[in-house]
What we know:
By secondary structure, this protein is of the alpha/beta class. The chain has a single domain (about 10-190), classed as Peptidyl-tRNA hydrolase (Rossmann fold, 3-Layer(aba) Sandwich). About 30% of the residues lie in helices and about 15% in strands. It is built from eight helices and seven strands. It has helices at about 30-40, 75-85, 120-130, 150-155, 160-175, 175-180, 185-190, 220, and strands spanning about 10-15, 45-50, 55-60, 65-70, 95-100, 105-110, 135-140. It has a seven-stranded mixed β-sheet, with helices on both faces. Strand 3 (about 55-60) and strand 4 (about 65-70) form a beta hairpin. It starts with 10 loop residues before the first strand and ends in a 9-residue tail after the last helix. The mean pLDDT is about 85.
Amino acid sequence: MSxxxxxPPRLIVGLGNPGAEYSETRHNxxxxxxxxxxxxxxxxxxxxxxxxxxxxxxxxxxxxxxMPQTFMNRSGQAxxxxxxxxxxxxxxxxVVHDELDIPPGQLRLKFGGGLGGHNGLKDTSxxxxxxxxxxxxxxxxxxxxxxxxxxxVLKPARRDEQQLIDEAIDKALAIWPQLVRGELNAAATRLNxxxxxxxxxxxxxxxxxxxxxxxxxxxxxxxxKEEPQP
Length: 230
């Protein structure tokens, strides 16, 4: 795995599918993050046909935000077009996406590595020519059956799961100042820490068995023999 660079990202990409019918589905977690980040930075999205997506210029932060409108499995087309135009290196790109192998409420920030079967990442790597870019993985959980994965990611999360996902996005936004300063490794340490598991309750103590009653002394309880009368 390549060494993670210590410089701020210049392009933040949220992965998802365009259209109202997909807006609330688990696969659009990357879009949710980008929309929240744009609101925090005061940036507005507008469709740019040359970049095949919705683009926002966060001038104060010195970076671009992108939500590809090409559908998930062609995300790299939009990312590659914008990155080439503005001469943004792959190591200066942060791709935000949903992650089946992480439970709702948790996040992972990593540089490079495998693609985990994610179609959006596969196409991104194909267009960038490398896996060496940053990823922010937003946990959505797994249905438990790989045959149900497509149906799972294209449906809205349950209410309790959605609350956990929203809280995870809050955590990611809270470390944003570190990302802007290029402290991605320190941010990863904070975000990747797994929550402490609660200690199992101690089993209740067994009640002490009562002590057996003392056995009376046989000599003390022996019935005295009657003496024969004269």
